[in-house]
What we know:
By secondary structure, this protein is of the alpha+beta class. It folds into three domains: about 5-75, Integrase, N-terminal zinc-binding domain (Arc Repressor Mutant, subunit A); about 80-130 and about 205-240, YebC, transcriptional regulation domain (Alpha-Beta Plaits); about 135-205, YebC, transcriptional regulation domain (Alpha-Beta Plaits, 2-Layer Sandwich). The protein is built from eight helices and ten strands. The strands form three sheets. A four-stranded antiparallel beta sheet has the order 3-1-2-9. It starts with a helix and ends with a helix. Belongs to the TACO1 family. This is Probable transcriptional regulatory protein FC31_GL001317. It is found in: Cytoplasm. One of its GO terms (biological process) is regulation of DNA-templated transcription. One of its GO terms (molecular function) is DNA binding.
Amino acid sequence: MSGHSKWHNIQGRKNAQDAKRGKIFQKISRDLYQAAKAGDPDPANNAQLRLVIDKAHAANMPKKNIDRAIAKASGIGGAKFEEVTYEGYAPGGVAVMVSALTDNKNRTASAVRSAFSHSGGSLGASGSVAYMFNRMGLIEILRDDLDTSEDDMLMDALDAGADDMKASEEKFQIFTDPSTMTSVRDALQEKGYDLDTAEVTMIPENRTAVPEDKVKQYRHLIDELTANDDVADIYETGILPDYDDDEEE
């Protein structure tokens, strides 16, 4: 039994690491798409795209994943990709928004619907949960090796044009209007800050605690959506029980 338990724990940690890696790749893929879409798909002529590619390499993202994300934005190969959003509820009443980039809306809709169905969730109509989120610019700066006080960071963020800031032990989260995120990002970089995240995203107004008996189904939904190559981002309101985080460590 002890051998089986040890294998189970190792496998569980590996699955958690794979899921975390998948989410990182998913986020970088979206950033690659947006950078290539907003500018030249050739990194030699697009400084922002070069920065994201460097981030992809640092995360050990496979070259084929990088190329696929850029191809989606540039239309290489003749495929035309569209941005589509799906809304629904995960088990436990957690609101979920799924942002996808697809060249086949029927395929993507079917896969997203199946993910919700497999996990005991429900896919809703457009607008069913969108009102629970605010579209905002988000910039995150890690506090490791950063010799800046919370007050100084707040002043620099406000001087750069940010609207608000939240601080935790791990990072500073700086919030902006979507239209000013780029200018705030550039201003903070000019001040010498190394940004971990700089994006326009959907921030939930309130959070929903995931019931303990729904955690497994909830995780299954998020993992299945994350594994879908068409899914660019997942926004959700869920908060997992504290014990669940402890068990993963």
